[in-house]
Amino acid sequence: MENITLNVQGMTCGHCEAAVTNALKELDGVSAVKVHLSEGKVDVSFDKSKVTIEKMKEAIEDQGYDVA
Fold it and tell me: Which residues form the HMA domain (predicted)?
């Protein structure tokens, strides 16, 4: 299992947190998501043989947020 912290811009509330969390958890291979709203960061635990970092970024961007 791999861990990564993504910098996500535009998250401001609980809805933002839920949108990002749900988008990532729908991806096969993502096992855990922890959103840190005040820091604009998302910690993700994932299986790199099942999902790529690029796919995770796309899932977040599809919800309307920018990933730095």
Answer: 2-68
Assigned token pair, 53: 């970092």
CB 65 within 8 A of CB 42: no
Q: Report which of 14, 18, 32, 29 is spatially closest to residue 60, judged by C-alpha positions.
A: 18
| Residue 3 buriedness (CB in 10 A; 0-12 / 13-18 / 19+) | exposed
Spell 39-52 as b/e; 16+ CB within 10 A means b.
Answer: ebebebebeeeebe
Domains of the chain: 2-67 (3.30.70.100)
28 membership: H or E segment, kind and range: none
* Beta-strand relationship, 30-36 and 66-67: unpaired
pTM, rounded to two decimals: 0.94
